[in-house]
Amino acid sequence: MSKLLKRALKISLTPAILMVAGKFLGILIPTLMFDIEFAVQNEMIGISSIQILYPNSATTLFINSISNLVMLVLIAVPTIYLIIKTSLYQSTLQNPRTIVKITKLNILNWITKKNSSFLQIFIWSSFLLVTASIIIVHTIQNMTYTWIGVSSGVMAFFCIWGTMRTFELEIAKIYPEEKNYY
Amino acid sequence: METRKEKTKRIFGQILEPFALGLLALLFILPAITVINLTPITNELKKLNVLGVTTQGDVVINLVGGSHEIFTEEILNKIDDEGYDYSVRLNKRGADSYSKPILKIENRTEEAAKIFFFGQTLTNTNSTISMIIDKEHFMIQNSKGETFDNEIEILPGQNITLFLALENLSGIQFSEIFDLSIKIR
After folding, report:
1. Is B44 close to A57, i.e. CB distance below 8 A?
2. DSSP label at B109?
3. Whole-angstrom Cα distance, residue A133 to residue B32?
4. What percent of chain A is modeled with pLDDT above 90?
């Protein structure tokens, strides 16, 4: 089995668990916090075998929005962190001004190659894309607040852009642009 | 030169590779399906079912089902939030009495629920049709074809089974459709 596949499997576990945990906690916490009545039903409706029922549509909208927001934050924050970290690391290799800025901000230890790679960013961004797609579909179906849908769309867009940027930087290391030689 | 151990490891790795790819795909698909599954819904959405229907007040009506020589083609349809239609084909039969459990009604609310039912056949075959609930008879249509409205009360948490009873003094050579309207208040 290839090392790439093994690594991809290892990296994918964390966002997969976080995605489900985020949704679950996002339902559980506000339900307990606001003491909202709910029921659980087991019935086969399409691909859904379990239904969490709330007494009215306003409550359902609120709980679904919060759970989607928690899920989005849990996936988006590490993704953005990885993108910024890798971009800054790549930038420090090419631009001395970045090193100066980073030294001034005293975050030199933070910018390391450790635990950040294109594969990791790609997988986390893919999970973010899946999460954003679910949230956007829910927004279109009026099952989530519009601002959460818009936020997830914007975040997904920037993360895709960040991933592409990282990919370009990684490629530039293997195939440097000609102008860099002169 | 490749040793035996290395060769086994390489072949094993090659066999595992497609499974690992499948597993990787599942790692993306399963959380997505789980998240969709966990999406909360409003209680009202539950009422969209046709058979084994739940009403707004959580009065559950279920078909008993099963097979019977005389009572066939049973259908339970939801008309609106409180109304249901039950229909059954009464097949040709000899002069006798017949009965079959047709519906189970459960009151899951904390208040007593009133059930109104009214039924008739399209053609009169001089049969007496009644409903039996807890050994009590409720006439629905007499042998002259006259129909009667009925009302029963179900206490909170009570579970009742409705039996459809049929009696005719002469043999019936043709099948007929019996329709029953049920209203829950």
Report:
1. yes
2. S
3. 10
4. 41
How many Cα atoms within 13 Å fall on the side-chain side of residue B145?
5
HEC sequence for B34-85? HHHHHCCEEHHHHHHCCCCEECCCCEEEEECCCCCCCEEEEEEEECCCCEEE
- Measured CA to CA, the distance from residue B117 to residue A14 in angstroms comes to 57
| Cα-Cα end-to-end distance for chain A | 42
Residue type at B91 in one-letter notation? N
Span B124-131, mean pLDDT? 85
Compute the Cα dihedral for B13, B19, B25, B28 and give only its sign: negative
Q: Does B110 touch chain A (CB under 8 A)?
A: no
Residues A54-80, mean pLDDT to the nearest whole number: 90
Instruction: Check: CB of residue A75 under 8 Å from CB of residue A30.
Output: no
CB distance A143–B35 less than 8 Å? no
* pLDDT digit string, tens, across residues A15-63: 999 999 999 999 999 999 988 888 887 776 666 677 888 877 788 889 9
Give the nearest partner residue to A63 out of B23, B34, B40, using CB atoms: B40
Q: Determine whether the interchain pair B35/A127 forms a contact, defined as Cβ–Cβ distance below 8 Å.
A: no
Query: pLDDT tens digits for B47-78?
Result: 444 454 444 457 888 888 777 888 888 888 77
- Distance, CA of A18 to CA of A77 (rounded, Å): 11
